[in-house]
Amino acid sequence: MDCPKCESIFEHITFNHIEVDRCSQCRGLWFDMLEKSDLAKMRGAESIDIGDSQVGKQFNQLRDINCPNCKHSMIPMVDKDQFHINYEYCPNCFGTFFDAGEFRDLKEHTVIERFAQMIGTLRSNIAAGKKKK
Ligand SMILES: [Zn+2]
Ligand SMILES: [Zn+2]
Question: Distance, CA 131 to ligand 1 centroid (Å)?
């Protein structure tokens, strides 16, 4: 399988027994149907995204690509929580392609969001405590 953005070969990497393809050149990440949602939940999974986000940003401009897996044309997508993360999605085999740095970015947000929720809960607990007095 070749990278849909720079046409270099993908290398197989594994994280917690999940196999992912990473481009040997631009370091973009290719996820099969379920790999992304599984990995997005796993602590430390962002370590697979070793690429330079500046390089990723350049390749992010290239959005008219064909699926490396089934050759169907891919659809440019925007992450529902983070609008600056643009990835490509294959409507045929449901694979997704993330440019270097994008998966890391996605994971970072998840952590910050969880932290914000924690603070939110804490605040409402304090508020509830005050009301009791
Ligand atoms: Zn590439
Ligand atoms: Zn496909």
Answer: 57
Task: Give the ligand with the smallest distance to the CA of 68.
Answer: 2
Query: Tens-digit pLDDT profile for the chain (133 aa)?
Result: 999 999 999 999 999 999 999 999 999 999 998 788 789 888 899 999 999 999 999 999 999 999 999 999 999 999 888 888 999 999 999 999 999 999 999 988 777 777 787 788 888 888 888 765 5
Q: Give me ligand 2 centre to Cα 112, in Å.
A: 32
Taking the C-alpha atoms of residue 19 and residue 26, their distance in angstroms, rounded to an integer, is 18
pTM of the model: 0.82
Four-point Cα dihedral 99, 100, 103, 109, nearest 10: -110
- CA of 4, nearest ligand number: 1
